[in-house]
Amino acid sequence: MNISWYGQRCVRIECREGSVLADPFDPKDTGLRGPVINDDLVLLSAYDQPAALLERIGEGPFLVRGPGEYERKGIAVRGIPAFQDSQSGRELGLATIYRVTAEDVTVCCLGALGQDKLTDEQLEDIGDPDILVIPPGTQSALDAKALAAVVTAIEPKVVLALGSYDAFIKQLGLAPQKTDTYRIQKKSLPVDQTVLVVLTS
């Protein structure tokens, strides 16, 4: 399995079964190049999206925009309901946390999550992911302390931080490894420890 970052909250998970693109963006809105979208599944963690982005995604990929159980080409996806803010969505609206399972590896993407504390039900639905993808500091609705507390509650084997979110890294207290593409197999996952990997775009 390979995981790459394209800026903002956008990551691509490539596996034997196919590929998953989480949170693509419209390059015209960001000034970033962004990936070509030809994936099997596209996941959007914030429901409200500009029409230009939805048009860019097109009808080729299987588009997932909210909670539920999904499957495509042997890739299993679970969408877990959440909020983009700590006011039960009243400020910024609904979000979806995604749990993706392929090659017997589970990746959890926090995406647009803005709750400063996860509920017991959310933690149960997230389970024990192998890899937890953390949005970059400029894209996270959570401050570094709250985000570190979420990571501690989930207890993943690998924390995959998008970009050098220095305040978060300091809160987490782990020495980061840096790479432009994270490559992992089930047998290579850490045991009895949490590893911090910083992805560069």
Q: Number of DSSP helices?
A: 5
* Topology-level CATH name: Metallo-beta-lactamase, Chain A
Please trace the helix and strand order, writing H or E for each element. Answer: EEEHEHEEEEEHEHEHEEE
β-sheet strand percentage: 25-35%
Which regions have little confidence, pLDDT < 50, spanning 5+ residues?
A: none
Helix content: 10-25%
CATH class: Alpha Beta
Mean pLDDT figure? 93
Mass-distribution shape: globular
Number of domains: 1
Rg computed from alpha carbons, rounded to a whole number of angstroms: 15 Å
N-to-C terminal Cα separation, in Å?
A: 17 Å
Structural overview:
This protein has about 200 residues and is of the alpha/beta class. It has a single domain (about 1-200), classed as 4-Layer Sandwich (Metallo-beta-lactamase, Chain A). It contains five helices and 14 strands. Helix 4 crosses helix 5.
The gist of it:
The protein is of the alpha/beta class and 201 residues long. The protein is built from five helices and 14 strands.
Using brief descriptors, characterize the structure shown.
201 residues; alpha/beta; Metallo-beta-lactamase, Chain A; eight-stranded mixed β-sheet; six-stranded mixed β-sheet; 5 helices; globular
SSE layout and pairings?
Elements: E1 2-5, E2 11-14, E3 19-22, H1 27-30, E4 41-43, H2 51-57, E5 62-64, E6 68-72, E7 75-83, E8 94-102, E9 105-109, H3 120-126, E10 131-134, H4 144-154, E11 158-162, H5 166-172, E12 177-179, E13 181-183, E14 195-199
Parallel strand pairs: 3-4, 4-5, 9-10, 10-11, 11-14, 12-14
Antiparallel strand pairs: 1-2, 1-13, 2-3, 6-7, 7-8, 8-9
